[in-house]
Amino acid sequence: MAKNAPIAGASDGSAVDRLVAIDLARGLAVFGMYAAHVGPNPLEGGLVGNLMELTHGRSSALFTVLAGFSILLITGRKAPKSGVAGRQAIARVAIRALVLLALGPILTYLDTPVQVILAYYGICFLLVLPLYRLSAQQLGLLAAATALVLPQVRSHLVFGSESSYFDPVIKLMVSGDHPAITWVPFVIAGMAIARLDLSTQAMHWRLGLAGVALAVLGHGGSLLALRLLPGVPAALQESAWWSDVGYLPWSPWIAAPHSKTTFSILGSTGCAMIVLAACWLAMDALPHLRKLVWPIITVGSMPLTAYVLHIVGIAYLLHIVGIDLFGGGSRLSMLFGFIVVVSTFAVLWLRVFQRGPMEALMGRIADLARHIP
């Protein structure tokens, strides 16, 4: 089994052991998206409902932060690549972005209730690519600035513009389910994290504590604003500071996932940093834990394959088998089924091959960049 399969050819000398934590976090993000898409409805309440609610929006935010990390794995994490290597690295990221832009509509055509995020990722990749030479501090400041400013720009464009929301470019940039204008901060944050010296436990603790601070600022700030500011609708005061269950009227003060507000971006980025730091600390402190969570790590090493498989699986069960995945009742068995099947596939596949099937295909296409002089 190839330990460095997920980043084969992309590492710039970083220790493979350190990057296993990235695959673990990515695997958790994949399973979180499974929970959000086929797991029990959070409206059921109770412990299971609340756990499911934690995955809504935050899993895709974690995935997006890790996507930013991966961009610097390709373009040079410790030091930006330059010359021919730099131009080829830029082209590799751009090609990946174009593939995602094409793959997104294909998966959407399968007509599942899942809001496919891949095309939005593609746009974000293209938008942040010019930033790959910036330092960790510069990227961190830019992530904070875009989190503060871009949600306000989006709300002005959405609520104060006559532009058609159905225009493909406007939808991807502004009015869609995961508009690039408010998801770019997650990608930039991931790039900033990748630029840090992550070789010490002290840095892992700092990353985790910074994540706690951001989560408190985002969700705690939203809670205070909703409770203390005048004129806030009663419907928002109970749970809109952390949950998007049920219908919520839009407000710039809510931090519910998918609300596309500054508070939401800060809170979800903080949660992503906490998970990432926890994965690093766990891999450092408990080396034997790696064997127990290896199925999660293998899924995290082929995230695109895992994502595509679950969309195809949902489409098959809905349209071919005729199973109502989103009807009443608990869907824990369905969620566990998806997790077990995809984990088993990932483990068996990596016993034979170095990368997942979609990752290998993406790599072959992106390898066209080697022809750039």
TrEMBL record:
It holds the Pfam family DUF418. Residues 18-203 form the Heparan-alpha-glucosaminide N-acetyltransferase catalytic domain. Residues 231-362 form the DUF418 domain. InterPro entries: Bact_Transport_Assoc (IPR052529), DUF418 (IPR007349), HGSNAT_cat (IPR012429). The keyword Cell membrane does not apply. The chain crosses the membrane at residues 60-77, 89-108, 114-132, 139-160, 180-198, 205-226, 263-283, 332-352. Keywords: Membrane, Transmembrane, Transmembrane helix. It comes from the Bacteria. The keyword Transmembrane applies. PANTHER family: HYPOTHETICAL MEMBRANE SPANNING PROTEIN, INNER MEMBRANE PROTEIN. This is DUF418 domain-containing protein. It comes from Allomesorhizobium camelthorni.
